[in-house]
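Lesson 9: reading folded outputs for more than one chain in a single document. The general rule is that every protein is listed as its sequence immediately followed by its C-alpha cells, and records are never interleaved. Here is the first one.
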Amino acid sequence: MDKTQNKSTGRLGEDLAEKFLRRKGYRVISRNFSTRYGELDLIGTKDGRLVFIEVKTKIGDRFGQPEEMINRKKVSQIMRIAQSFILRNKEIASKYPLHQVDAVCIVLGDDNSLVRLDHYENIGE
C-alpha cells in the first residue's frame, strides 16, 4: 500500500471514528493536531473530560490487527502530544481539567466497507 492510499485509509478511519464518537455523545473539537512529537487524530470532549483519541485503521487482517499498533510507547507519545495541546490551548484545557486517552480501532474490507470498529476508553491509565 502506498503513502497516498495509507493517508486516504487513515482519513476514512478518522471520519468513521468521528461519526461513531459523535453518536456516543462526544464533541470533536480538533482533528490532526500536530507537534514535533507527532500527530493526534482526534481531540474531543465528553462528560467534562478532554479526550485525546488515537485512530488505527487497517484494511483486512492480513497484517495483524489495529490494536497491535497501540503499545506503551505509542500511548506515551500520545500523552506528550496531549500535553502540547493543553499548553497551547489553556482556555479549552481549563474548562476540562480531567483528561483521558482513547483508541478507536477499525478494520475495513477490501472495498473499504466497515468490518469492525472497537472503542477503547481511558487506555492511558
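And here is the second record, again sequence then C-alpha cells.
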Amino acid sequence: MFQQNVERIKKCLLLLLLSIPVLVIRLLRPFVKIHFVAIGSHRMGHFIFDVECLLAEKELHPEQYKGINLYYYNKVVCNSQWDLMTRRKLRIYSISRHLAWANSKIPFGDFLEKPSISVKYATADPHRYMDKTKPHLSFTEEENRRGRAFLQSLGMKEGDKFVCFNIRDEAYMNTHYGTSSSFNQFTANHHWFRNSDISLYYKAMQALAEKGYWVFRMGKVTEKEVGVSGGKIVDYPKSGFRSDFLDMWLGGNCHFMVTTGSGIDTLCHAFRIPEVCVSLIPVTIVAYMYTNSISIFKYLKYIGGKRLTLDEMTRSGIWELGSSQSFLDQGLEWEDNTSEDIYEAVFEMVSRLDGGWKESEEDKILQKKFWQFVLRSPSYSRFYSAPAHRIGANYLRKNKELFGA
C-alpha cells in the first residue's frame, strides 16, 4: 500500500510538472499545428507497419503531416534495429511520450493526439499506400556488408537465394509477456488458433533446399527445433547467432517469406517482398496481407462434423470471429493446412517468381468465386472493395466444397 501511494504521488508530481509545457503547446495551436503521433513499438507487426505505412501516407498526403509532429514510442521497443532505421527518418523523443500522457490526463486535449497507424487502419492498408510507393526504410551499405558476410559465413555463394519461414507458436508470447494465469487465459482466448506445427513445413523446406534455395526458420524464440537436417536449412532461433539486426536484415532481403501471419512478416509489406500465407484463420484475415501474396486457409468445421462452406461462414458471421474461444463457443474447430497444401502453395510462388506459372480458365473462375464470397463480409469490405491478392490455386482446386459444390 505504501509503495502504491508513493507511485501515485510521483505521477501527480510528474503531471504537475508536464502540465506547463502541455498548456503552452495548446496555446500555440492556433499559430502552429502540433500533434502527438503514437508509434506502436511494443509488438513487431505493429512497429513495422506503423512506421512504413506512416511514411507512405506522409509521402502521398503531406498535408496530413503539416506542422510539428511529436513522434513517440510505447515504453517497450521490440527491435533495436528497426528502431535505429526508424530514427533515420523520424525524430523520436522519449519526452514526447510523457507529454502525450500528460495531455491525455488534462481534459480537452484530444485535438493534439493522432492515433497510431495500426490503430487508425487496424494494421491493414486500405488505401494501398504500399502499392503506390517504394520502401521508405533501407539498410546502410555497412549493414548490407554485415548481412552478406553472415550469409557467406554459412557457405552461401553470391546469387544464392533464401526463403524465410515465419511459423507462429506460443514461445514468444510466453517468454516476453509472462506466464501468469491471467496471461495464459488471454493467450488461450485470443492467440492459440493462430499457431501452427512446424513439422508441417518440412516437406516444403526440404524441397526448396533440393532446388538450391537456403531456408531460414525465423523467430526470436521458438518451441520446437526444426526436425529436418540439411546444410541449407537453418534453424535460426536455435542457432546462437540470432540478433535484432539479422531479424530485420534476413526478413528484408529474402526471396520470399512463408508465414502464418504474425509479427516479422510485416517486413514483406515494408520491403515489398512476396509472401506465402498459410494456415490463416479466419478467411477475412486476407485483408491484412500484402498485395503480392498467395494465401491458403485452415479448415474450419463443426466439432466432430463437416467442414464449413464459404456461404455458411458468411451467413453465420463466423468470418467476424477473432479469438480461439469465440470459435469454440460456436462449436467450431480448425485444422492446419496439410504438408501437401503448404508445399503446393510455396511452389506456386516459386513458379510465379520464375515466370513459369500457367493459370487455367478454371483457376480464374475459382478465384472470382472465392472473392465474391469474401467481399460480402464486413470484416473485409470495410477495408477493400476489390480482391487483395491471390488464393492458392491448388488449394481452391482441391477444396471446391468451399463453394457448396
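What the second record shows: The two ends are 65 Å apart (CA to CA).
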